[in-house]
Design brief:
The chain is mainly beta and 294 residues long. The chain is built from no helices and 28 strands.
């Protein structure tokens, strides 16, 4: 994010590293076929790396501060955080770009069937783009500062960081909204789904993780960690949920079988800022923003 490159780790060659020059402030990646798409936050562009042709790079101009990418079919949807739009790159039509108007400061995208759901952090709503109907948009009011999304069945769960709530949008019931309320002072931050549960990390003083049960009226149990955490990213592997704890340089792990958690200590300075985590087969990869390492 702090430079103009994408590093390539060749896991089959002893984790050797090479670099590809892209735009300024690369902050999100998506893969479609043999191409890697890179959102360049400070350049207002998306770089397209052709991995089948020597990692050659082409560039597409999008909106201000592109921050997240998702794929629907052969189209790339780009959330432009600096404005009120989502750019759509039609890769099957020479990477032509169209624009969809959404709410203020779109920050998170998630795909549900043929729909793209957009969390608009500063307009307290979620835009739902219907990609099968000309990218028409419907708007759903949720809580204050919606920041994270996950899908369970046909429902969209929305973490409202500015209030102590999660909104549940029932897309199969006319986008009706129900609300899960947590204790005062909660700051819902990161959501994910695993099996029949929805997991929410909460950046309050107790650094709680809430396990929401959609099959039982969205009742929930709370895991209190009693240690300050700054949760910023999440992934799953097998029956485990992994939350990066930037505040401690560690990973909080929840066992979905028991709904118990433990802390995976890492030899990483807490200032490293682990703001992304992914899984590859049986390995976890974390991005350490400040240290410039994985």
């Amino acid at each position: 994010f702090g430079g103009t490159t994408v590093s390539v780790i060749a896991t089959a060659s002893g984790n050797s590293v090479s670099s590809i020059t892209v735009g300024t402030g690369p902050c999100a990646l998506a893969v479609l076929g043999t191409n890697v798409y890179v959102a360049n936050y400070d350049s207002g562009t998306v770089s397209i790396i052709d991995t089948a042709n020597g990692n050659s790079v082409s560039t597409v101009t999008v909106g201000t501060n592109p921050v997240e990418l998702v794929i629907v079919g052969t189209n790339i949807y780009v959330a432009n955080f600096g404005g009120t739009t989502v750019s759509v790159i039609a890769t099957a039509s020479g990477n032509s770009v169209s624009t969809v108007t959404v709410g203020t400061n779109p920050i998170t995208l998630i795909v549900l069937g043929t729909k793209v759901c957009v969390a608009n952090v500063n307009s307290s709503n979620v835009s739902i783009i219907d990609t099968a109907n000309g990218n028409s948009v419907s708007t759903v009011t949720v809580g204050t500062t919606p920041i994270s999304l996950t899908v369970y069945g046909t429902d969209v769960y929305v973490a409202n960081n500015g209030t102590n709530t999660v909104s549940v949008i029932a897309t199969a019931s006319g986008n009706s909204v129900s609300t899960i309320t947590f204790e005062v002072g909660s700051t819902p931050r990161v959501l994910t789904t695993l099996g029949t549960k929805v997991y929410l990390a909460d950046n309050d003083a107790s650094s709680e993780i809430h396990v929401i049960d959609p099959l039982n009226g969205n009742s929930y149990v709370t895991i209190i960690n009693y240690i300050f955490a700054d949760y910023s990213a999440v992934t799953t592997l097998g029956t485990k949920v992994f939350f990066t704890n930037t505040g401690q340089g560690s990973i909080n792990v929840v066992d979905a079988g028991t709904d118990k958690s433990f802390i995976m200590g890492l030899d990483i300075d807490p200032s490293a800022n682990m703001d992304a985590i992914i899984t590859l087969v049986t390995k976890l990869y974390t991005e350490n923003y400040v240290l410039g390492t994985v």
